[in-house]
Design goal:
Layout lengths: L15 E10 L2 E11 L4 E5 L6 H8 L7 E7 L5 E2 L2 H6 L2 E4 L11 H5 L11 H16 L16 H13 L8 E5 L7 H16 L3 E5 L3 H7 L2 E6 L2 E7 L5 H8 L7 H4 L4 H4 L3 E4 L5 E3 L3 E5 L6 H13 L10 E4 L3 H4 L7 H6 L7 E2 L2 E2 L1 H15 L15 H13 L5 E5 L7 H16 L3 E5 L3 H4 L4 E6 L2 E7 L5 H15 L1
Helix pairs in contact: 4-5
Length: 492
């Protein structure tokens, strides 16, 4: 048994202890001997590339998976030690997953009833309404979400806010350890800031958090310790002060280019051609141009992309000669076919081109899948495995490959890097630059300023309208934030 790999001495009564935990799925070793402890007051930053074993580790910690080897122990509020799913719940272990688990046909308050089993009998709805409203107010002051709203009518950012608030909400067993898996992937900077502030306060009051994120700046802001995972193992574990951001990237196995933010615009003068699109709201793009859509989440960017995509993708010729393709950020709702294989999800939009007289050329389909599995680094031992066997980030890679493998001259991307690790992001940026150099046009909405700064031109949205158009050196975080709030201030 390997010794616990932690950033300091193991306390006498940690909330959770993993002891040489192993999780094997056939030949795949998702966890390969992981030992760690999480104590009151700690915020553990759990870092690693997609497929490193992070999601498996947290599913073992929260009792969702029983390890095939090793042990998981919990300290209950009365100080006793226990194991098993019931013990995990009694110990106050909560999870907020990257793949949102809310039921879209239920209201916000009705969704709270699913994890909180004590919400039953007369008056349960009033109790649920009070609990979720209080949690939303505490974590996200100034939100506009009402407990009676149907989840399906909320934006992706609002759904993520509800999911997070559910994780911290009052219950019979109070939250003592909350696992946050990519919690800010759909949140704009101001809302993400509210969450980070709350996490720090929660830990200061004696709670604990496992914070999983590919946004390394956020990890450095809230974590007290960082554990790096690779190939199902913890390879490094240190106090956060012992890491630098570049050192952490190196520990993960990828080195980011210092010139990434400007490299994509260096050849803009020779790459960009004639205008290929213009919309009623003033959005435009030229051949070979990478156009970013920025601003606070939920201010019309996704809707503008959807209107353009629907206008250009209708008609009988679209399937055989597509003019535009779409990379979804909300893969559960808009991208992944959950019952299909990785290969079929990847080649879905290409089936007409791969068919002869209505019959799919399976050899050509497999060749296409194998090519893009290698090019974009999809982590699987068999591309015929179910799509849901992949981590969330690897599922997103499949959607990215599906679009880039097409012949469409325009690519519409709705926050496509949600939950994708930093190394894969760099590879994707390089791939976008290569595709743009060949004449392909990109419309790229992102909630991450770093990604927006990869663009040639940026339209900032506020209240469903374009509030600013930025080009070249004007594209920076300060100008984007100023334009995001400009119209609101003018109206005040």
């Amino acid at each position: 048994m390997q010794p616990p790999l932690t950033g300091g001495p193991a306390p006498e009564n940690p909330l959770v202890s993993l002891i040489d935990a192993r999780m094997h799925f056939g030949a795949v070793r998702a966890l390969d001997g992981v030992s760690l402890t999480i104590s009151p007051g700690e915020c553990l930053g759990l870092i690693g590339h997609n497929g490193a074993g992070k999601s498996t580790a947290v599913n073992v910690i929260n009792g969702g998976l029983t390890p095939t080897g090793g042990a998981v122990e919990y300290t209950l509020p009365d100080g006793t030690r226990a194991t098993g799913t019931v013990a995990a719940r009694a110990a106050g272990i909560r999870s907020v997953f990257q793949e949102l688990s809310l039921c879209p046909n239920l209201t916000v308050e009705e969704n709270l009833r699913i994890p909180q089993h004590d919400l039953s009998g007369p008056g349960w709805r009033r109790t649920a309404r009070k609990r979720i409203a209080r949690a939303l107010d505490e974590v996200f002051p100034g939100h506009r979400i009402r407990p009676g709203m149907t989840v399906g009518g909320l934006t992706l950012a609002e759904r993520q806010m509800v999911e997070i608030a559910t994780g911290f909400a009052e219950a019979t067993h109070p939250a003592r350890l909350v696992i946050l898996d990519e919690p800010t992937s759909s949140l704009d900077a101001s809302i993400a800031r509210q969450l980070l502030d709350y996490v720090r306060g929660f830990c200061a009051r004696g709670g604990a958090v496992i914070f999983i994120s590919h946004m390394l700046g956020e990890v450095f802001e809230v974590a007290t310790r960082i554990d790096v995972m690779k190939d199902g193992k913890i390879t490094q574990s240190r106090p956060v002060a012992a890491f630098t951001q570049q050192g952490l990237i190196d520990a993960m196995g990828h080195v980011a280019s210092a010139e990434a933010a400007s490299a994509i615009r260096q050849d803009a003068a020779t790459r960009i051609g004639a205008e290929v699109l213009r919309t009623d709201e003033g959005l435009s793009a030229r051949r070979g141009e990478i156009v970013g859509l920025a601003g606070l989440a939920g201010h019309g960017q996704a809707e503008a992309l959807a209107r353009f995509f629907m206008a250009r993708s209708s008609g009988p010729r679209h399937s055989s000669d597509p003019q535009v393709v779409f990379v979804a950020g909300d893969r559960t709702r808009d991208g992944v076919m959950p019952l299909w294989s990785i290969l079929r999800n990847l080649t879905l939009t290409h089936l007409p081109a791969l068919s002869r007289r209505g019959i799919v050329d399976r050899a050509a389909e497999k060749a296409l899948g194998a090519e893009w599995k290698k090019r974009i680094g999809i982590r699987t031992d068999d591309i015929l495995n179910p799509i849901l066997s992949l981590s969330g980030g690897n599922q997103q890679k499949v959607l990215f490959a599906r679009s880039l493998a097409s012949s469409a001259p325009i690519v519409v991307m709705d926050d496509p890097m949600r939950g994708v690790d930093v190394g894969t992001k760099r590879e994707a940026y390089d791939m976008i630059r290569v595709e743009a150099a060949s004449g392909r046009t990109f419309l790229w909405y992102s909630t991450e300023t770093e990604e927006i700064c990869q663009c040639d031109r940026v339209f900032v949205f506020r209240n469903g309208r374009i509030s600013a158009e930025l080009t070249g050196d004007e594209i920076n975080e300060e100008n984007i934030l100023a334009a995001s709030f400009e119209m609101q201030e003018s109206a005040a």
